[in-house]
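Trying the structure run again after the queue cleared.
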Amino acid sequence: MTQALATTPHAPHRIAELAGALAAPRSAIDGAFVAAGNELSECAQLITKVTGLIEVLPSDLESPDLAEGSARLAVVGQRAEAIATELGSPEGDLGRLVLALGGAATPIDQLRRTVKMMGIVAVNARVVAASVVSERDDFGVFTTDIAELSNSAANTVSEFFHQYQKLNAVVAEAATARSRFALTQREPLARVARTLQTLLDDMAAHRRDAVTISAETGRMSRDIAQQVAKSVMALQVGDATRQRVEHVEAGLGRLGTDPALEPIAFKALELQRRLLAAARETLTREMDAAAGAVSDIVGDIDAMLRKAAELHGGGKGKQSALDALRDAVNAAIRVLGDCEAERQKLDHVALSVASTVKVLLEHVEAVEAIEYKMRLVSLNAAVKCAQLGPRGRALDVISQQLRALTGDTVVAAGAAVKRLDEAATLSAEFAAARGGAAGDVSALGTEAEAALDLLAAVGQRMDDAIGAIGHDVPRAKAKLADVVAVLGEHGHISEQISDAEFALAEMSGTGGDIAAHADFFDSLRKTYTMDAERRIHDQFTGIKPADKPRMNAEIALDDIMF
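Done. Tokens:
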């Protein structure tokens, strides 16, 4: 309790002292409510800003960047799936190339045997020609031409066979590389396709839900802003209580300075006590209610944040739909990068196959030239045998063998060339395709990176908005906490007012004629700005003025509010 005051109403200085004692709680009321009002006003501005940020989020989800990025990723997923499917299918051109080369093995072996037999025939031709030779006869076709043709054919076919073996080895390497490519890349590509499709479906569903979520979140945010605004208005009770304390101060001031009021001082002090008690009770009640309302706003803000997290697509311990999609694209780019590295190895092998086929085909021309030379030598041998008559019978046998070998050479070379021409066509197709659909891997990686850039732009805008929300909402909650703390100070203020009430109770009484001092009481009534004060006044004095003071618009508004 404050320092003891006089117990007699005719001590003006003591009444003035009591009036002065009310200055401290009045000032505390004024400062507390001004501070709380300022904090709430700033909180309202923050909530309004947050509302705007929340309402912008759906537009990012519907932005052209996200639509284009999603469309590109859909294409990436479809092509990745197509590549994975192709890698799981038979080996296409490369498989047919292997078969074509395998088909050339038999005629090439036959060609080698034919050329080897030609060497034997060339030896026999020289031996037989030596037995029938004369100085007048020209046996060069048997002694020289066949031997030279045999040696040339042997060298040509040997080199041809060497290139054929080299091509077989290169194609086998290509087949192994492609099998390895299919084995290591098919499942990762298929997984990329599945993951992208799933996350694109999730994003599409989230985009559909975003409008509803945003509307609900925006409504919650606007409701919070309205609650804050109502709390700001409700805090005007602080100003009303301050005014009521001022009115008591003013009344005590008149009692302490006007000796003519001493006869009615006991009753006037009791009236002031009642007015002060009612003001204190209103202050306590309204401040408790305001603190409770502000505390509820904090809970509403947390609920709004949870709903905003749904709008972003994430939540506590949960990744947002957009972030999940961006992570999946990064993973897809890594997979496509690995795939591209393997594809480049396959490209190198394909080019090696093409170059080896080209070299082999150059030797085919030499093999075809052997056919022509064998036909020519065979014809010359037949003509020479006809000229010799009976002496040329033995050489005629050799000539017939040469003609048979020429026929075998033509058949074998033709079959080999046919197969190699087919192999050359398949090799060209294989080199052009560079591994079939796998040739699209590089383009897919580029497309995925372009889509990622678009998603990153959207994600950055959303992250900025969420970051701003995450920055402003805690500030708003901190300001609300400050308001609750300020409102919690009413206990100290109430105690100070209560001390004044006790002092007034000790000084007041029932003596004095109110009617005799009606002008004084009427003048007090005219100073009131609150209807609650007038009701207490009228009930205490029992005076029913015929014409009560007309309230201006401001006073009427205060009465409506309080």
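Confidence is low (pLDDT under 50) at residues 1-10, 547-562. Worth checking whether this holds up in the mutant runs.
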